[in-house]
Amino acid sequence: MMDGVPGATPRAGWAQGLRLVGPDEPQTRCKLCFQGVRADLGELFEYVVDPASEVYCAHFFCLLFSAGLEQTGQDDEGIQGFLLPDILREWRRGQRLKCVHCDRKYATLGCRDKTCRKTFHLPCARDHGDGLQFCDDFASFCREHRPRQQGQFPAEGSEEAVCGVCLEIMNQPANCLWGPCCQGWYHQDCIQRLANTAGYFFKCPLCNNKDAFVREMQLFGIFVPEQDAAWEMEEDAFESLLERHAPCDAPNCACPDGRDHDEDDTPWETILCRCCGAKAIHLECAQKVPLPVGSSERHTWTCSDCRAVLRARPPSYTNHYRRVRNESHVASNQLSGLLTRVRFQVSGSLSSPQLSVRHANLELSINNVPESSESEPGILSSSNGSVHPRDEDPVISLSPPKKIQMLKPVVLTRKSPQKRSKKARPAGRSRKITQTSDKEKSVRQTSILQFCVSSK
């Protein structure tokens, strides 16, 4: 069915089904790009239906980027989800398409720009700098219409013109990639090798960013395989982590059985360095070694290398800022108690109402407040000019004859119990008095505000 197409020549003994072509089979070539095994083209698969007439052979990436091919099957069907009838239909479509680079047929890749009709092979696109996106629907672009990165290539000779993977100087911007996370630059080949090795753990080698870095690399030609990292797939890769350093590293080991002897709960038990854990010493040998700075126990030991690092460490930072006062501060508790424990109570008859206020160690009494229709400032007077503490909660009572007059708020501040002399009113100070009728004057009475402190 596919005779006359460059590919593997049928051989005797071929087994039907899918197989992976190895690098030792140079005669087996992809039927879409005419290339053999190449790392930058993905794995080369071969599906044999009939060794004499029907053999499908294609790179995985050639199938992914073919413009008219869809992955409609499961991963275990056809070639990695690409069904054989779909592959045959795409191959036949490619017979009418020529590559703009090599002028050969079966150029199934096309520029995604709607105004461009260029087609090409995947190897030709790699070699001529065309755009390939290894994400979403695997779009391809010609060199003219390919997307451009936002980063500006650093000047020659600057520190930024160094690859973040191999640390070599970069000279050709066309073969370099820019990382949007930390503005670093890398060789494209270095990033691809890193992605092949890291797999799921692929991230920025400079700042460890994963999401933005991986997305940017996929959009500009980097394939990230969905696999575990190479260092995790090696046999017994983490076996060395279970090993413990046992030999005594004392300059003059005193153990009669040698440096490798280790017996628990005896003077010849080995302990590791408390900092690095890479060196050990017998408890008996540690008696001859000076204790580390700040240590008072013999079972903690620091090797000579770590002690040198600790001595060269700069002095610790001293905090010169005072801690911000929080709700546990005494003053805050006092203010909170003042606002929550004040209680007002009105009692008595209509002729002699009383207002009682209880709080802390104070008792306040207000009597004979004159009835008035005006809002005049009140006059405060104290019977003895002092405030005395008492053992229990005081009672503050207000007893006006008829009507309570609104007074201006007065802030009371507790001070130490001592007598204070009352200040005389400065000469010339007067209050503005509103003219009232004779009837209103007859209603006025004298008001006395007294502070009374009594003990029970």
UniProtKB/TrEMBL annotation:
Keyword annotations from UniProtKB, A to Z: Metal-binding, Zinc, Zinc-finger
Region span, Disordered: 368-446
| One Pfam family linked to the record | PHD_G2E3
Q: Where are the compositionally biased (Basic residues) regions?
A: 416-432
Annotated Gene Ontology cellular components are: nucleus
For this protein, the record's InterPro entries field holds:
EPHD, PHD-type_Zinc_Finger, PHD_PHF7/G2E3-like, Znf_FYVE_PHD, Znf_PHD, Znf_RING, Znf_RING/FYVE/PHD
The protein, known as: PHD-type domain-containing protein
Organism of derivation: Tigriopus californicus (Marine copepod)
